[in-house]
């Protein structure tokens, strides 16, 4: 039997117009559902603060050494559950919940402009949409240059691409917390399966 996989899923605290943050509500619902016997799931709420993200993410990667870290954020513009392909390093000018923004306006001073996830988000999207879950999934290349994008880039940088970001719409627009949690569960399990299969392929190539 495969050893247990460790997965961390995060949501964000309330900010701006989002007095209730759908991302954290959905992640808490996901925790109730679980990811099955062989997945050790840890959830945590992320403050909407640049400096808190810089402190929290390295400690999560170091403490749990997860196979995958998935960040969930809310987007007032989203009407689907949206998989983000990449995180961006520059353009952070919007003030956080502490009225702070990085002087450099970037995540990592020496980091690349953009880091992509090791996951094939198009493939994940296609598989989940074909499963008749009742929740529509789409793909995006722009996580918005605020705490969502900032968190994603930082996590991709620390985890060498073994990270994902999922934007969810506000609650009831159109999905309930339970529906969002079911969608998150299907997406994360699909991501884990894809990672496992790509590892198998790599091993096969080495053996040739």
UniProtKB/TrEMBL annotation:
Main localization (coarse): cytoplasm
Task: Please give the InterPro entries that the UniProt record associates with this protein.
Answer: Peptidase_C15, Peptidase_C15-like, Peptidase_C15-like_sf, PGPEP1_Cys_AS, PGPEP1_Glu_AS
Q: Where on the tree of life does the source sit, at the highest rank?
A: Eukaryota
Which top-level enzyme class is recorded in the Swiss-Prot or TrEMBL entry?
hydrolase
**Which GO molecular function annotation, any one, does this entry have?**
pyroglutamyl-peptidase activity
**Alphabetical GO biological process terms:** proteolysis
What chemistry does it catalyse, as a reaction equation? Release of an N-terminal pyroglutamyl group from a polypeptide, the second amino acid generally not being Pro
EC number assigned by the record = 3.4.19.3
For this UniProt record, the keywords arranged alphabetically read as follows: Cytoplasm, Hydrolase, Protease, Thiol protease
Recorded GO cellular component terms are: cytosol
Q: State the compartments where it is located.
A: Cytoplasm
Annotated active site residues, numbered on this chain, are: 84, 148
Assembly, in brief, is:
Monomer.
Which family does the entry's similarity section mention? Belongs to the peptidase C15 family.
Question: What does the protein in this record do?
Answer: Removes 5-oxoproline from various penultimate amino acid residues except L-proline.
Its name, as the record gives it, is Pyroglutamyl-peptidase I
Q: Give the species.
A: Electrophorus electricus (Electric eel)
Q: Which gene encodes it?
A: PGPEP1
